[in-house]
Hints:
By secondary structure, the chain is α+β, with helices and mostly antiparallel strands.
Amino acid sequence: MSTKGEHHTVPLSVLLKRESANEKIDNPELIHGQANQSKKGEDFTLLFDGHNGSAAAIYTKENLLNNVLAAIPSDLNRDEWVAALPRALVAGFVKTDKDFQERARTSGTTVTFVIVEGWVVSVASVGDSRCILEPAEGGVYYLSADHRLEINEEERDRVTASGGEVGRLNTGGGTEIGPLRCWPGGLCLSRSIGDLDVGEYIVPVPYVKQVKLSSAGGRLIISSDGVWDAISAEEALDCCRGLPPESSAEHIVKEAVGKKGLRDDTTCIVVDILPLEKPAASVPPPKKQGKGMLKSMFKRKTSDSSSNIEKEYAEPDVVEELFEEGSAMLSERLDTKYPLCNMFKLFMCAVCQVEVKPGEGVSIHAGSDNCRKLRPWDGPFLCASCQDKKDAMEGKRSSGDRHSSESD
């Protein structure tokens, strides 16, 4: 065992073998399948669970990806692109919400948005649709947050601090029924895209988590609440273990509907992330296979000729957590404390990417109590309309003020 500070030289043969292996596993194979049973016709993939109509889900499906990509500078290398993605996801979500609300539609949607770049999986979510990961090494990783007011005390506190009211439906005589909701509007969620009629303290700022898989791969299950209200993550994984993605998605939906009936739109997407040389299983094993089945599916091939030196310097196969943030405050999510502090151009709005003339942009730190005492002229900057949106989300302006000013 080496002592602290001791320097070891890795043999050239090992470095060359690593480089060769990295080239081969640089881009995994992605195989996906999806299934749906519809009650209201408001679920759209990838993965938007609409409510109060499908307009928000359709608009988000058509525009969100472009808005996220537009927030990433074009001159980044691969590692820089991955590092820039968490902030771009925030900007893309907020712009999509802002643009949709300007159409004066009252529809809303939850979103679970997944980008796979090489072995890095980035997930951004608002609402109660969720994404889980089972890596080849085993275990379950929860890559999204649940923004239902019923179970998220931190979000309840944020909504009430921003001017909303949280309570159950009152049927008269002091009798309250159902889950906790935000009033006005009666939405059960604290975050979504759309929902103009509820109040802007229901924010579109996503929880973002980014992980890097080992070269052995893993399986993603992305589902609407119609699945997760009926079965657990472990049940979802167990009921489809060993099956290819298309059959897996169908089995999960069938399992969920079989337990609670078709009470809501129920949608599931399954994505297998595999080494290129290891094809997905095509023949399903018996349903009662042990939990090691998925691990054997994704197990990386080993070479019998590996030397003791190569084994000594082998890198472990683990899931590496790269990024996690769930704050609803734009001044925290678009801050320059994260890598790529030069991501935002000086005279571009950090949310909508429109050009801002010198002196017209508003720092995201303006009016905030920042423990690092950043100056109001420290960027990144927002245009006037995005600053207005930020103030409304943080309870500094009534959401009704915007509509009254527009009608004057």
